[in-house]
């Protein structure tokens, strides 16, 4: 089951994504759908409305307005840790015995096909990060690692757009990661029951068609079970919580010389069995 939020005739709805159509589902928004009892969701899927051709709808981010900041993992693939240290050892080097958690502010997520804001004048060294994002399905508190899979609603693709100079100038990453237009997400949420746990999915990115990142999501340094077990040991994770699990090697700062983004660039982030998120920098 693949789920989307979309606009049709100016109205925002949620629906079931099929090969070339969307079938409406009777929920107010994606958060309401995620919170609904599973039996209610299954009944709604069985009774989904008439198919709308994909060409007649505009996809939005699957959760266009997250209720809380996105929880992010920093430096969570070994090869990305190495490229980050080469780029700026003072900012990214050193031993890391525990995961880096940070928060990404997102008032409104950027839709698939939407625009990444370049913030000219404020931002230098604009960069992309293709990531697997986990969507929590039910209230998670003190969840054992062995039970984490039961708390996951599904997965989506998230581009953790980053302003490298702001990120490294300020001691914390909040400003450099949380600007408006910095969180493209989508194109859909693939339900957890369609993806084995832990997910081992091809993840890649391209800029203007040029391959940049190419890895698999089973190479996380801290895996999803341990992330959610640790966070939920002291932090209640509500349904609809989004956790971005980190990015593999091949981001712009990883190249010598670096390949940062500029207006007009087209960034595509893809994950197997979820889809491709395609955004243009403006
Ligand atoms: Mg990231």
Characteristic terms for this protein:
282 residues, alpha+beta, 11-stranded mixed β-sheet, 5-stranded mixed β-sheet, globular, binds magnesium ion
How would you describe this structure to a colleague?
The protein has about 280 residues and is an alpha+beta fold. The chain is built from 7 helices and 18 strands. The protein has helices at about 30-35, 40-45, 80-85, 90, 165-170, 175, 225-230, and strands spanning about 1-10, 10-15, 20-25, 50-55, 60, 70-75, 100-105, 115, 125, 130-135, 150-160, 160-165, 185-190, 200-205, 210-215, 240-245, 265-270, 275-280. Strands 1, 2, 3, 4, 5, 6, 7, 10, 11, 13 and 16 form an 11-stranded mixed sheet that branches. A 5-stranded mixed sheet has the order 8-18-17-14-15, with no helix packed on it. A hairpin with a 3-residue loop joins strand 2 (about 10-15) and strand 3 (about 20-25). The model has no long low-confidence stretch (mean pLDDT about 95).
